[in-house]
Each structure stands twice: as C-alpha cells, then as structure tokens.
Amino acid sequence: MPYRFLGRVVLLNLTLRVHRKIIHIDMDAFYAAVEQRDFPEYRGKPLIVGGSPEGRGGVVATASYEARKFGVHSAMPSKTAQRLCPQALFVYPRFDAYKTVSEKIHEIFHRFTDIIEPLSLDEAYLDVTKDKQNIGSALDIARQIKQAIKEELQLTASAGVSINKFVAKIASDMNKPDGLTFIGPSRIEAFMEQLPVGKFHGVGKVTAAKMKTMGLHTGADLKKLSESEITKQFGKPGKFYYLIVRGIDNREVQPHRETKSVSVEDTYQSDLTTKETMWTELETLAIRLADRLQRHGLKGRTVTVKFKFHDFTIITRSLSLPELVNDQESLSAATRTLLDKAPVDEKKVRLLGLGVSNFKTENEKNTNIQLDLF
C-alpha cells in the first residue's frame, strides 16, 4: 500500500525481474543414431556418416559414439577419420530421412511451446517461460521432451536448461549423450568464471590462441578486463564476451528467424601467397560448406569468397548462379571462377571464407549470371 512521508504520498514502484526459461535440445550423434536405429547391422559399431567409404575425400558429418572413442569428430576430413579408425563403416547421408525425423522431433517440441528457434536439423532453442501445458518447471519439460523422443523415435537427446541461450547451449553439451544439465541463476556467474575460453561459443581456435597468449584461460581471466579493454582487443565480439562472462545474454528465442547466409572460414598460421595454395584451401572450405548446407536443408544462388590480407584489409567476390546449389562440385566451380578473377596475385592472404546466400525457391529463376563486388 502507499507510504506517507512528510505529508506526501510516495508510491513504491517495485519491479520484479522475471527470468526466461530456456531449453537447448541437441540430438546425440543425430545422423549416425538414425542410421543405427534404421539399420540393425550398424548398431554397436563405429559408424561415420559423410565423406567417402574409402576415406578418399569429403568430411565427417557425424560419427557414432563408438567412432568418437577413436578421436573421430564432425568436420574432420574423412581421410583422417579413416586413419584414426580403420574399422569404421562409412555411409552416405540420407538427408531426407533426417529431415523427416527432425519434423517429428519438432512436433514433440510444439506440445510444450511454439517459441522454437531451430539451429539445424538436430538442435533448437525453446522458450518455455509460459508453456502450453502449464507445467511451470523448465527442468520437468526438458525431461518430458527427452522421454518422448526416446519412446516415440528410439533416439536420445541432451538438454541444457538455464535463463539464457548461451548458458543453455553450453549446458546441453556437458553430459552427452542423453544428458540433462540445469544451470540456475545463482550458479551462472561462477559457472562462467570457471569455463575455459575455448568453450565460449563464437571463440574460434585463433581467438582462443590469442587469448591464451594474453594469459586469458578462463572466464574469470576475461572478467578482469574492462569493457573498453576487451573491446579494444577483440572488437565487437569483445562486448559480447564482457556481458556473457557476467551471465548476461538478452537474446530472445526467435521462432521465425530467417537464414540469410551460411558460411565457413579459416585463418591460417602462415600467409597464403599463391592462387594454387588458396585453391587447395578453398576446395576444403567448399566441402565443409556443402556439408553444412545439406545438413540444414538449404540451397542458395549466390556464392561469395572472402579474402582477408596480411594488413587486415578485406575484399569479397560474389557470383550469382542461375540455379540453386548446395553440392560441393557446384560450389567448387563457382569458387574457382571467383578466385581466377580476384586481384590476389602476390598478396599475403591470412584468412579465406566461403559462403552461400540468396536462398530463393526453385521456381524463381535468375536470367543472368552476375559477378559482383560486395
């Protein structure tokens, strides 16, 4: 009720902070698990989805847990995977099958909430702050989702539960497979302080290496830097690191997020100085990009190559194709055209990137192929 102070009415405006309830669901070795479910002869054996059965080319899309014991992991060249695990069985991806299973998983999600942000066929964020069944507990909802996936689809999922997307995603990876990890508000700052910098999403190998040379090994080390210091060292991402190490992530779950582009890139320890070496690296990027596009069920029309030089200047070259593509051969052909036309002779290139955008429908046709400078 109002308080009276010196004859005046003073209203107390109390703001109650309401935390979001966020779940991140990540299927366990999804493609391999579907293959082992559908084909009993693969069960209990090291299985690699993607690449070549002879290990001659391509990259690993997913490896079963039996194969992971030998050090095989996603995005690894299949040659390396075959060397690490010679007894592994290689199978080609069946993306139509995975997409069908993914749709059934999302049907389960929708029993609890419609605020779902898919990241790929096998993972998604769910905002269950207000759930459809009035369960209330995000932890109980996560348990029910996992149980439904196991009983109805004969697959396992790992779940992370927290008050924001960043922490929920990290939590889902902590106790795989078939894990369930809850990190509540009172634990977040302490959890972030002990987290190795390499575990921060968005911190790649090169950035992690730079951090370690600066003596920044954990979130607690990052927390010692002021916002201006961390931004000076790492640019715009530095501001995000400053906030997240304090447990602050205000990003909403976006159920209708539109994918505008998909890309991959690599930074090199030694500068690339010839088009031949650049082409070798771009071919590898094309394999990785094709795998990522196919896993997300996407096809695009515009291919872009990014060059970052030794002096940190950046140029990009883009090619718009007459047809939608997501296969490695089409991407490589477009990339070769772009590289041939790029002014990179006698330049020192420290980073290469390759991306696809312009995700239109198959019915839309471009009448001309255009080469653009973005």
Automatic annotation (TrEMBL):
Q: Which GO terms describe its biological process?
A: DNA repair; DNA-templated DNA replication; error-prone translesion synthesis; SOS response
**Residues bound to Mg(2+):** 26, 122
The UmuC domain sits at 22-204
Record flagged with keyword Membrane: no
Q: Which GO terms describe its molecular function?
A: damaged DNA binding; DNA-directed DNA polymerase activity; magnesium ion binding
As its record notes, the protein acts as a catalyst of: DNA(n) + a 2'-deoxyribonucleoside 5'-triphosphate = DNA(n+1) + diphosphate
Where it sits in the cell: the answer is:
Cytoplasm
Primary subcellular site in the record, as a coarse category = cytoplasm
Keyword annotations of the record: Cytoplasm, DNA damage, DNA repair, DNA replication, DNA-binding, DNA-directed DNA polymerase, Magnesium, Metal-binding, Mutator protein, Nucleotidyltransferase, Transferase
EC number, UniProt record: 2.7.7.7
Provide the cofactor list for this protein. Mg(2+)
Report the GO terms under cellular component.
Answer: cytosol
Residues the UniProt record annotates as site (Substrate discrimination): 31
Domain of life of the native organism: Bacteria
Q: Where is the active site?
A: 123
Q: How is the cofactor bound?
A: Binds 2 magnesium ions per subunit.
Family to which the UniProt record says this protein belongs:
Belongs to the DNA polymerase type-Y family.
Q: How does it assemble?
A: Monomer.
Function summary: Poorly processive, error-prone DNA polymerase involved in untargeted mutagenesis. Copies undamaged DNA at stalled replication forks, which arise in vivo from mismatched or misaligned primer ends. These misaligned primers can be extended by PolIV. Exhibits no 3'-5' exonuclease (proofreading) activity. May be involved in translesional synthesis, in conjunction with the beta clamp from PolIII.
Q: What is this protein called?
A: DNA polymerase IV
Which organism does this record belong to? Niabella soli DSM 19437
